[in-house]
Design a protein that fits this description.
Number of strands: 17
Helix content: 25-40%
Distance between the termini: 40 Å
Radius of gyration: 21 Å
CATH class of the largest domain: Alpha Beta
Order of helices and strands: EHEEEEEEHHHEHEEHEEEEHEHEEHH
């Protein structure tokens, strides 16, 4: 019997278009002999649309384009049957689902929101659960946990919307230049490199468009190294590290997704055997400290002195043709299609383990 996979993508996020590309690639990689695929595109306003023909059209950029308005609306519910179902609001048909595969990058998809829904309807899910997703999205909370665990990350100050923030005090603490970034956002959206008070005055309002919390973070002059992690519990593997060499001033949204020459992706990174071992161990430790499961990409800065600093963790990394996570796994012996299948298997196995936990008090 085929495994019935519901792939969720789009969403109310600045990374909506990237999510669509990731979903297209995953859908093409899933074997039709092994999997029954159901594509659920989530519009910016929260409408869920069932995509026809089990594919994402190559020319489609958003899940809420006008042509999608005529496609069936669906909802995910548990009606007391063996499996949760996708309920077609047009035909009233019910399609049982075995596992959810969310590729909803950014807020409302990568932050624990939809993971909570999957838990409520008792549906296995690929990737991290509610807690790890929320931690990974909120960089300020993430940094507090890393600091408590003694793991290295850049110094920062927390800025809150509506309060006055002194440029001079930030410079005194963090030095110049420094970065500002939304606490809850990904793909370098709203990130600015601040070199002067004029930069700060110009860009802070833009960064606050994306979140009520903003991090001012010290600039680390170093290489950008990334490691992919796959697995659950004590059964984890860290990929060979890769290096991102931005051709822009830093690895911005444009460099990641819009400019094909925006960055050089060196896979694997040119590191010594000792440096490889160090960064892989640090990636695994970060994955565990932040309560992750299934998959994540851990991003680092590496100084000239060879010291690694954790930049951030991505619990739903990109699956586009230029995304680092699948590329890193491929050079580490896990090809794209095998990676997708392993993630689904991990989700089902984790769900079976969770079912053994007692949820009611038994005297």
């Amino acid at each position: 019997m085929k495994t019935r996979v519901a792939l969720f993508f789009g969403g109310h996020s600045a990374e909506h278009e990237i999510s669509v590309i990731s979903a297209r690639n995953i859908a093409k990689a899933l074997s039709p002999e092994k999997y029954e695929l159901h594509l659920v595109g989530i519009a910016d306003n929260g409408r869920w649309t069932l995509f026809p023909d089990r594919q994402v059209p190559n020319d489609l950029k958003r899940a809420d384009e006008p042509r999608t308005h005529s496609w069936p609306l669906v909802s995910l519910v548990n009606v007391g049957e063996e499996k949760p179902v996708l309920y077609n609001l047009t035909t009233h048909e019910k399609q049982a689902i075995d596992v959810a595969f969310p590729v909803l990058h950014g807020p409302f998809g990568e932050d624990g929101s939809i993971q909570g829904l999957f838990r409520m309807v008792n549906l296995p899910m690929v990737g991290c659960g509610v807690l790890a997703s929320a931690i990974g999205m909120d960089k300020e909370v993430m940094k507090r946990l890393l600091h408590e665990a003694g793991l290295p990350s850049a110094r920062y100050r927390l800025l809150r919307r509506g309060l006055k923030h002194s440029f001079d005090e930030i410079v005194s603490d963090l030095g110049l230049p420094f970065f500002i970034k939304p606490s809850n956002m990904g793909s370098s959206i709203g990130v600015h490199k601040i070199k002067s008070s004029a930069d700060f005055d110009q860009h802070l309002a833009d960064t606050f468009k994306y979140d009520e919390k903003v991090l001012a973070e010290t600039f680390i002059n170093g290489r950008e190294i990334e490691v992919a992690v796959l697995g659950g519990g004590s059964d984890l593997i860290a990929s060979s590290p890769g290096e991102v060499i931005p051709q822009h001033e830093f690895y911005s949204y444009e460099a990641k997704y819009l400019d094909e020459q925006g960055a050089i992706l060196k896979v694997p990174a040119e590191l010594s055997a000792g440096e490889v071992a160090d960064v892989k161990a640090l990636a695994l430790r970060t994955f565990s400290v932040l309560c992750c499961d299934g998959m994540a990409r851990v991003d680092f800065f590496m100084t000239k002195a060879g010291k690694f600093f954790i930049n951030e963790i991505n619990t739903i990394p990109g699956f586009t043709s230029i995304s680092q996570y699948p590329k890193l796994m491929e050079i580490s012996g896990v090809p794209y299609r095998v990676l997708i299948e392993r993630l689904i298997d991990l989700a089902l196995r984790k769900f079976e383990e969770q079912k053994k936990l007692q949820s009611k008090y038994m005297a």
